[in-house]
Each structure stands twice: as C-alpha cells, then as structure tokens.
Amino acid sequence: MFRIMILQVLLLLPFSLTAQQRLTVSCDEPKGNRFDFSNGTFKESEDGFKGVTPVFVYDDAAPTRLMFIWGATRTIPKELSPDEAEDATIVSFSENKITAMYADPLGAVFLFSLFPKEGVVYFTQHRYLFMSTPNTSSYYCNCTFKYSD
Fold it and tell me: Is the entire prediction scored with pTM above 0.85?
C-alpha cells in the first residue's frame, strides 16, 4: 500500500511543479472601420486609435480572465495590478486563438480575438452613442506575443 502511495505522488509531482505561463501581448495602434446608423442610414468611415498601443495579459493562474490596458502603454509593469487594467471574460481558448468579451460601465461591448501564431489581434466594439446613434467598429493591430513563467 505504501509503495502505491509513493508511486502516485511521484506520478503527480511533475504536474504540480510545472510553472504557470503568462502571455503578454503588446500591440501597435489599432486601425479599422466604423459604422454609424443615424437618420435611417448607415455611414462608414475609417477609424483607429492614434497614440494608443493596447496591451493584453493572460495568466494560466486565471484561465477565464484576459486583462487589458487601453491607452498609451509603451511600457507595462512586470506585475499588472487590477487597478491598472480591465478584465475581459475569455469565452473561447485554444493554442491558435483566445477570444474574450468585455462590457464597459457605459454599455459598450467589446470582443477581442488574439491570434498568437499570426501576431494579430482583431476586436470589435458595439455601442450606442449620444443617446441615439448605434455604432460598431472593427479593428486590427499587429502585436508581439511574449510568453514567460
């Protein structure tokens, strides 16, 4: 019986000692298109975020959480505090794609999809502007994906 217990511990030991992985994604300025609906018609225009370099952080320790910072984020602290970032909820996860959703307090909804192998992030936002204008925008950005323990 004792031998079986030792064997079980030895078999499980490598799994408990594996390091948690952290993925930090640093992006260029997002570019894309915006669609507004006003007075019964759609209006399409180019859109983007000049001077904004989004950063996304995924940590194995919180597998349903994707932290992100939106703003002029050329540098990011080694340990991201909840006060510095927003949390999106991961709805789909694979080695090829991480997709997360976020609803801000003003009612805008964001969908982020990160593609590590391609080095690309796509995201879409849906919102209701100025109390009368439904709006959606879709963006893309080239990104650097960095894994660490």
Answer: no
Q: Which 3 state secondary structure label does DSSP give 84?
A: helix
Please list, in sequence order, all residues whose beta carbon lies within 8 angstroms of the beta carbon of residue 106, skipping any fewer than 6 positions away: 127
Do the beta carbons of residue 50 and residue 89 sit within 8 Å? Answer: no
Residue 81: per-residue pLDDT: 52
- For position 19, what pLDDT does the model report? 57
Decide if pLDDT at 146 tops 60: yes
Instruction: Domain 23-143: give its CATH architecture.
Output: Beta Barrel (2.40)
Per DSSP, which regions of 41-118 are E strands?
41-48, 55-59, 65-69, 86-93, 98-103, 109-115
**Separation of alpha carbons 26 and 82, rounded Å:** 18
* pLDDT of 48: 87
Reduced to 3 states (helix: H, G, I; strand: E, B; else coil), residue 17 is helix
Tell me which residue of 140, 84, 133, 88 sits closest to 109, measured CA to CA. 88
* 3-state SS, residue 2: helix
Torsion of CA 93, 95, 97, 102, to 10 degrees: 40
